[in-house]
Each structure stands twice: as C-alpha cells, then as structure tokens.
C-alpha cells in the first residue's frame, strides 16, 4: 500500500524546474492560508452576547418598545420578567417619584445610547441617573412616549483590545515556517545543480570522475547525461592520445639505439660527432615525452600520504648541490600536505632545474598561509614576458624563441608537468617576474590537517 501511494505521489510530482517552482509557490500560499486560518480561530474572542454593547442596546430598545405597547397595569410584570431574563442590564422600575436624571450632551453622544434610540425608532427620553453603585457603564432612566418608565445599565462601548502580542507571535511563527520551507525547497531544487557543477569542476580541472546526479528536475538530468557522455568521449580521446604518444616514444628507442651503434663506425670525426649529438637530442625528446605521459597525468590509484614539504624541498636541493648547482633553501618550518611524494618531488625538481638552467641558480622558500603552503623557486635569469607566461605552461613550449634543437636546452615539457601535478593535488602553479630581473615559480598546495608539527625546528639555511 505504501509503495502504491509512493508511486502515485512520484507521478504527481512535476519533473521540470518550472513545475517544481510553481508547486513551491502554491504550497507556500496554502500553508500561509492554513496557518492564518488556524490563528484566526485560535485567537478570536469568544462570542458572549451579554458582554457586547450592541446586543445590550438592541435588548434595551426592544424592551422599551414592548413596554410602550403594553397596558400600564401589565408593565410591572414585564419589567420583572425582563430583569430575571437579562440580569446584566440591571433592569428596574423607575417610578415618577424617583429623582430625575440629567440629559447631558455626553450622554446624548454616547454610542450605546444612540443605538438604543435608533433601535426604538421614535423619540425616546433618556436621562443619566448617575448611580454610584453601578458596575462599569451608565445607569440611565428611559421614558417612552406612552409613559412607560424603567432604568437600565448601559454598558460602555470599550471593546477588549486586540491581543497584539499573540498576533505578532503568530506572524513571526508564520514567517519562520515559510522561510524554512522555502529554504528546504530551494536547496532540494539546487542540490542536483550543485552536484552537477562539482562533477564538472572535478573533471575539468583534474579529470576526476565524480558521480553525477541521477535524480532531480528533468533539465538537470538531461544536462547530467550529456556531461556523462562528454566525459566518456574526452577520457577516450585523452587515453588514445596518451597511448599513442607512449607507443611512439617507446618504439623510437630501438631505432635510435641502432643508429647510435652505426654512428660509431662513421670514419669522419666531425660527421660522427654531429650524428651522435642529433641522436642524443632525439633520445632526450623521447625521454621527455615518456616523462610527460608518466608524470603529466593524474595519479589515480597511487597512494596519498602525508608529506613534509620542507624535507622534500631540502632533498631536491641536496640533489642539485651534489652536482655543483647553486641551490639554496631559506629557513622554514616543517609543513605537512597530502599527496603523492614522487609526483611532488618531480614538480619541485623541474622548477629548480629550470631556475638553474636559465638563471644560473635557485633560491627556495616555503611560506605557510592560513589554508595553503607555497613553495617559491626564484632565480636571477631574464624572466618571461607577461604575454608569454600563460603559453609557457603549455606542453612543448620553450622559453627560447628559436626552435633550434642545436642550441635548445629542453623540450618545453617541464612546466606543463608541474601544472598537471599541481592541479592533481588541488594546487596551482604561478609564474611571477621579479624586479629588476629574475623569475619566481610559485607552487601552491592545500595544507593537510595539523599541517605544522608541534615543536618542530626550523631548517637552517644552506
């Protein structure tokens, strides 16, 4: 039974965003009216005729008409019956020997007195008896045109004030309830969109495949399905490109090796030297391509561990210092990040290699911010023109303008590998020109939980 009801409710639920928004508006209006109706019936004053001034005026006017139309000898009995029936009006005979009251302007303008005159329909003499022992109200004496006389208590027309506090609380409660319903409904509508945006961002920056929303409005499902098909096509194209590049680079190793062996038998020393140099450059290009395929891809499936950035930077610096390069590390604290050690070490190595190659040396510094850590690799080289900095991050783009392998010192893959590794770790690479000359390559990475080791010492500057 529950499954049947659930299926019917699902069939009635609109599938489009427009339909769900319209349903949300209608539901909010229904809830508003329901709460307002409930508040009206809960807060309204109970109907008590005896306390209502208008009812009292009508009763007094009706009694005056009855007495005016009744024979004088039957009026006393009618008054006694009215006094028993209407005790709140304090009806009593008003003989001619009783003190006469006063007819003031205040009495004539009294709202209830005017209603009594209007209800009687003819001129009616009403005097203020000014009784001191009467409850709230005015003790009046009434004389009809036919001479019937009686006194009654006319209540003041001061209706009880509206309970403003309860009304304010009701409307506040109504506003809070409607706000919560609106927020919940809006989040329910936008949650699939947020998941879709998250999946698109993850795939667009790191090629990570995040689960797409399978429920929600029809438009969101259609976009999710289209994005899923696009992801499959892009992944297939990237995999095909990677496999092709790896296959070509791998297969070129064998003929290069054979050519190197044959070049050794060239009798002309100059021709042999030039041929071997060309073969070395070809082999370097093959190795760079294989490195780009291996290190330039996201490390899916590889172990992610806590990495001490200061220790990693010091390791890279020591490796370059061992071969005589001018590489120095500024004093820094031990800071932890999460990542794949071999990839981050390769990224820092590429940056230091570029600094040594183009600037003659490298100075490394580690700066920690609130949520991130950055590794700055600075040199005193010529820098990179502002118009070319973005292009330098692309594969096979070199800093030297002449595309001549005879003098080129690289193949333009180092920075593109660093960019891929940084994005795979939710970081980024930025190139900043220094003044008056030089370049700083800044690698930023997110901090891990507990990024600073308590009581850790600083690494001394080299």
Structure, described:
This protein is α+β, with helices and mostly antiparallel strands. The chain folds into four domains: 15-45 and 168-200, no CATH class; 49-154, 2-Layer Sandwich (Beta-Lactamase); 220-295; 305-452, 2-Layer Sandwich (Heat Shock Protein 90), CATH 3.30.565. The protein has helices at 2-12, 17-43, 53-69, 75-85, 105-108, 111-120, 164-206, 218-263, 269-295, 309-322, 341-359, 389-392, 414-424; strands at 92-93, 125-128, 138-143, 149-154, 305-308, 327-329, 335-339, 362-368, 372-379, 428-433, 439-452. The strands form two sheets. Strands 5, 6, 7, 8, 9, 10 and 11 form a seven-stranded mixed β-sheet that branches. Helix 2 runs antiparallel to helix 7. The longest helix has 46 residues, at 218-263. It starts with a helix and ends in a 10-residue tail after the last strand.
**SS field, number of helical segments:** 13
Given the C-alpha coordinates, what overall shape results?
A: rod-shaped
- Kindly state the mean pLDDT as a whole number? 78
Number of domains: 4
Q: Predict the CATH topology of the largest domain.
A: Heat Shock Protein 90
**Low-pLDDT regions:** 401-408, 453-462
- CATH class category of the largest domain: Alpha Beta
CATH architecture of the largest domain: 2-Layer Sandwich
Helix content: 40-55%
Describe the structure concisely for a colleague:
With 462 residues, the chain is an alpha+beta fold. It is 53% helix and 14% strand. The strands form 2 sheets. Strands 5, 6, 7, 8, 9, 10 and 11 form a 7-stranded mixed sheet that branches. It has a 4-stranded antiparallel sheet with strand order 1-4-3-2, covered by helices on one side.
